[in-house]
Amino acid sequence: MNIEELQWFVTLAEVEHVTEAAAELGISQPTLSRSLARLELQVGAPLFDRLNRRLQLNSYGRILLEHARRSIDEMRSATERIATLRDPETGTVRLAFLHSQAGGFVPDLLRRFRAEAPRVQFELFQGPAHAIAERLANGQTDLAITSPRPDGHPWRVLYVERLCLAVPRGHRFAGRSRIRLADAADEPFVALRPGFGLRLLTDELCADAGISPPVVFEAMEIPTMEGLVAAGFGVAVVPVPRPDRTEPGAAYIPLTEATAKRQIGLTWSTDREMAPTARRLADFLMHIRNELN
After folding, report:
1. What's the CA gap between 23 and 164, in Å, rounded?
2. Dist. CA 169–CA 219, nearest whole Å
3. Which domain of life is it from (predicted)?
4. pLDDT digit string (tens) for 126-156?
5. Among 198, 188, 193, which residue's Cα sits nearest to residue 168?
6. Are 116 and 246 in contact (CB under 8 A)?
7. Partner residues linked to 144 by β-bridges
8. Domains along the chain?
9. CB within 8 Å of 52: residues ≥ 6 apart
């Protein structure tokens, strides 16, 4: 039972004449008669009483007519909602982004985009890299701003963050202008939980430096790490913060390692077609990314 045949049935129920209904629908009389026969076979009962050359809905037909009209209305509503979501002027973008990008970078991007597309709506998700990768895989998000690059997905770098060592203000390293990560081999570390993107980068940097420092606390957000550093719990590898977002009790020392950086990029799934609204945001980000570094 498809939606087209339900629409034919509704027209036939309103006209009550096969020839006239077929003419109104622009189909042949035998085609409409066969469609009616299929419907009656599917529901297991006759839908009309035959009176001379005309048809009249019986009790079974009236039940089907009620549900057919409701089904057609629901399908029309669904089609209209889908069209609205896909409209690049008024549609909805499902965007996921890292916790660490919520403090300024992503809101600034969205502010600039909304100046060009004020009627576009957003469904936002903020979380760690592994949760973002999971949402990409299961189709819960259209675009993601994340790091590092999720396996098997396209990737466009938006900007690069340098990494530094955050230490308490009174720490013996606090006065340095630069530092090798190996110099902190004996320091207790505050880090993100395993699986977080920055934790993966930190572990790689420590392995490259030949150190395995003790991790005294595993946090879920970078501001928590910085707060614990300021409280004297240890040191931490974090992105160099913007001047207005530094932790007052911490000093930030750039790392000398060339690999001490984090690429923040845009990614999406290739398993499904990108919605026009999401494509519009992606194109916008690609256009302005040179301004971000």
Report:
1. 76
2. 20
3. Bacteria
4. 998 989 999 998 888 999 999 988 888 999 9
5. 188
6. no
7. 96, 267
8. 3-68 (1.10.10.10), 90-157+263-289 (3.40.190.10), 160-262 (3.40.190.10)
9. none
